[in-house]
Amino acid sequence: MLFFMNHETQQESKKETADEGFADVVTLGQNQPLPLDSGKKIGPFEVAYKCWGRLNADKSNVVLVCHALTGDHYVRGTNPITGKRGWWETMVGPGKPVDTDRYYVICINVLGSCAGTTGPASLNPDTGKAYGLDFPVITIGDMVRAQARLLDHLGIDKLFSVIGGSMGGMQVLQWAVDFPDRVRTAIAIATTWRHSAQNIAFHEVGRQAIMADANWAHGRYLDHDEPPHAGLAVARMAAHITYMSESGLTSRFGRNLQDRDKVAFGFDADFQIESYLRHQGISFVDRFDANSYLYITRAMDYYDLAAGHDGILASAFKESKTRFCVLSFTSDWLYTTEESRHIVRSLNAARARVSFADIEMDKGHDSFLLDCPDMDAVVRGFLSSEAEAMDGENKP
Amino acid sequence: MLFFMNHETQQESKKETADEGFADVVTLGQNQPLPLDSGKKIGPFEVAYKCWGRLNADKSNVVLVCHALTGDHYVRGTNPITGKRGWWETMVGPGKPVDTDRYYVICINVLGSCAGTTGPASLNPDTGKAYGLDFPVITIGDMVRAQARLLDHLGIDKLFSVIGGSMGGMQVLQWAVDFPDRVRTAIAIATTWRHSAQNIAFHEVGRQAIMADANWAHGRYLDHDEPPHAGLAVARMAAHITYMSESGLTSRFGRNLQDRDKVAFGFDADFQIESYLRHQGISFVDRFDANSYLYITRAMDYYDLAAGHDGILASAFKESKTRFCVLSFTSDWLYTTEESRHIVRSLNAARARVSFADIEMDKGHDSFLLDCPDMDAVVRGFLSSEAEAMDGENKP
After folding, report:
1. Which of A12, A314, B40, B353 is the most exposed place for a label (fewest CB within 10 A)?
2. Residues of B identified as active-site
3. Among residues B278, B339, B239, B299, which one has the least CA distance to residue A241?
4. Taking all residues of chain B, what is their mean pLDDT, rounded to a whole number?
5. What span, in angstroms and rounded, lies between the C-alpha atoms of B113 and B47?
């Protein structure tokens, strides 16, 4: 099964409804390739995105939603790749915290991904074959610059807000650092300011699992139509453990057996947690490209907002006019509350305005994707108060 | 390279020195096969073990050391498989906490392992080929019963102490539950009373990594001499992360680069943590059998001391005369302090005698294998006080 979108499907989904929004793919960088942090350039490249709501007259109501590692731009409505509903319908929609009756919401598939934006599974115009490992290694900064190119193309200069969780939160902070004048508010959820040794370690396990699969063929599997599904499934399983908390796993699965009264003394999935993890692995490979997984995890590992500032994160945010909202979850051990606190302390040191909420929730890192009234209330209040402040400024 | 011991090497190492001790392999269960928890039986089977010190006249000074998942009986001296020193020389030896000048120390390679005791890489007498997946699935209880058989064979009825960390600690507790009259003291370090959902999840990732390796060949790789090294290395890497703490990884590796000044924008090991993990994986495959890894992780997942007692751990220890010492490490997130506390509370509820120490150390689960003066002091004091109590009892 192909995991990436073909162009026809994208065009079909252009029809606009309140729920389905408007989807498009545009080609950018034909004349002016995008410079990358590696020193290489890419262009032309395609960018897939989706929008909901109405752009107001002064274009002051744009909210950019940034997606996570294995996410895509299908925030709401039907995801044509999986057939499932969008990944953040609790957060984005009519009457939701990111209210599409009020804001014009855009989500852009990141560079290097596989849901429509150019990535290693895309055709390399120089060879007529998939890029594979000829795709340049990218960074979170590169992803953000590609998004900025699309917004330029759409004539959108300023963002009322940028919001995202996990890798989405990394992009949020990168936006605020790299384009401080374009970002009025920034909402960074369940994220960090740099990948830790443990974060890198888990990603390296995933990459090694993919590369250990003989079908990976040094990244050229698309030439042979035998993708490294087994390795990619193992990578997903390992990562998935880090998305859940120990207590969440215990309360949801414990040592419950799967469709049996006693252990079978074999290597089938005796326990529910085994069956659940296997399902996570198997269902992932149908929707995601193994090389994209290598590239995006690499971008996350390279992420370190303090790197260009002698390790002082506050220097990255110096004199920022952006108003920040930082949210963490008590049970998130992937990007911990302590890491969010460091972001908040650094914003304070940089004299930036920041709200912070550490939300009590036992579902681990994935809490940001789940129904979480506390998170919704914080985001709703933060955005509403700033929207009212902006309305006040614009009054004569 | 063969990862398991051949018999000649074992015989060679029989020569006894204070450091090298005495090693032997005995065949058991010829007439009376060992009944297993699965309902199957195994016999004959070989058991490899090693001893240090001198057995006293009334055989009251025996300390059984139980090894962890990938451990073996080479506690001290040169390990003939790896060429390295034994795995617990800080704990066991002349003048050490488990003092071989005072105690007669035995360590037995567990059933299912690959350092001399029968496991899936051993020859199946019924077929003349390696067992592979025809080896019966075993439990921690089976491992302990096999050890008891060896002690019977050696004429050792009672153990002055049983000590072990991690899976070794599971055996310690299992010994106390299954053979309460044979165990005077039990020292369970960095361990648990049952494998949690998260514990099972990490093991399942490792097993899936092995089984995803085409060379695994449904466990029959020894017939083809192409072991699933890539999959086993990934399994080891994933597990190794759980043996270290986040703070320990940060202080030891952080985001330090490996032999370079800046990231290389590729998929080589840019970061020290990546290089370290890859080394852990690669060096592991030369000393350990992939099927043994499947079987022993399975035994650990099946481990639940409360299972036969309506989930009430205290019932498993009811009226135990054994004196217990439970040690945990503050930074161990694999088998947490909270799990040790549950063991201690259950022992209290069972009116058993128990000492407990939660040791401040930032090296994570592997702390028990490292130089840790606090742990050494607790073990030394616990054993000495009981030895003195026993001397007092034996005086006329």
Report:
1. A12
2. 166, 332, 365
3. B239
4. 94
5. 10
Contact list in A for residue B208 (CB cut-off 8 A) is: 233-234, 237, 278, 281
Both A82 and A177 in one domain: the answer is yes
In this structure, is residue B2 part of a structural domain?
no
- Chain A residues 272-331 with CB within 8 Å of chain B: 273-274, 277-278, 281, 294, 298, 301-302, 304
- DSSP-derived 3-state class of residue B48: strand
Q: Could you report the predicted ipTM of this complex, rounded to two decimals?
A: 0.94
Q: How far apart are CA A160 and CA A393, in angstroms?
A: 14
Is B278 found in the same domain as B170? no
> Global pTM?
0.94
pLDDT digits (tens, 9 = 90+) for B124-143: 999 999 999 999 999 999 99
Please check the confidence at residue A12 and state whether its pLDDT lies above 50.
no
Given a contact cutoff of 8 angstroms between Cβ atoms, the answer to whether A191 and A217 are in contact is no
Residue B135 DSSP label:
S
Element (H, E) at A297: helix A290-302
- pLDDT surpassing 60 at residue B5: no
pLDDT band at A9 (very low <50, low <70, confident <90, very high): very low
Classify each residue of B52-82 as buried b or exposed e, where b means 16 or more C-beta atoms within 10 Å of its C-beta: bbebeeeebbbbbbbbbbbbbbbbbbebbbb
Residue B379 corresponds to which tokens in the numbers above? 């073990």
With an 8 Å Cβ cutoff, are B208 and A233 in contact? yes
Domain around B20: 7-195+304-394
Among candidate residues A72, A134, A76, the one with its CA nearest the CA of residue A287? A72
